[in-house]
Amino acid sequence: MKEADLKRYLIELAVEGFELADAGDAFALLDEHLESLGSLDPELRDSLFYEAADAWITGGLLDPDQLTRLAMRLESEDFLFKGIGPIEGNDVFRRTFSLLVLDSIVRRSNAAGLPDVHLPESIAAAMERYVREERDLRGYVIPYGWAHAPAHGADVLRSLMAAPMREGWSSRILAMVQELLLKSGSVYAHQEDRRFARVLLAHVR
Predict the structure, then answer these.
(1) pLDDT tens track for 102-138
(2) Chain centroid offset of residue 150 CA
(3) Distance (Å, rounded) from C-alpha 152 to C-alpha 158?
């Protein structure tokens, strides 16, 4: 399905809250069109594809094996680490919206009470590298919309703080928050501080 056709399809689905006629189609649609996370069309990337992905993942339309397969793809050089390193570049959108879908996966895993620690620990390990290597800290990028790497990263870390993981991960997550806080050479101005605070609140809880 071409990008224009996918956009029209998702606009139609959005009217019904992204409900699919066949719930079994969710994984195939996400897998086929995952590159849309890096689209420079902010409506397709943010309001449509990500919202659909979040609805299908948190709504339980993917089984544990599919969640793991999707996470592994998102953790790869083609998504979370696509073009990482330069201070500015359009690949940042694919990276930061991969973060949001990883957050959806962790939240679904937490809500379903999945006991296997492999999934959240794999995502947490990928986050350690991501936080270390990400240099593009822009918030809103005209005309392409939100990049927001620190805020999206904080969202994943907040969900990981509530995930079942072995001892020691809480301190490692807090270290990642500290690194994100200290990365910027100027004050964060796009409510990133609130997202960081939510990680700390999750730790206290």
Answers:
(1) 999 999 999 998 877 899 999 999 999 999 999 999 9
(2) 11
(3) 10
Identify the H or E element spanning 145: strand 145-146
pTM over 0.90: yes
Note whether 104 and 98 are within 8 A (CB): no
pLDDT digits (tens, 9 = 90+) for 39-88: 999 999 999 999 999 999 999 999 999 999 999 999 999 999 999 999 99
Distance, CA of 133 to CA of 50 (rounded, Å): 24
Query: 109-121 burial, b if ≥16 CB within 10 A, otherwise e?
Result: bbeeebeeeebbb
For 9-35, give one letter per residue: b (16+ CB within 10 A) or e: ebeebeeeebebeeeeebbebbeebbe
pLDDT of residue 186: 82
DSSP state of 52: H
Separation between Cα atoms, residue 204 and residue 145, nearest integer Å: 33
Residue owning tokens 């620990």: 121
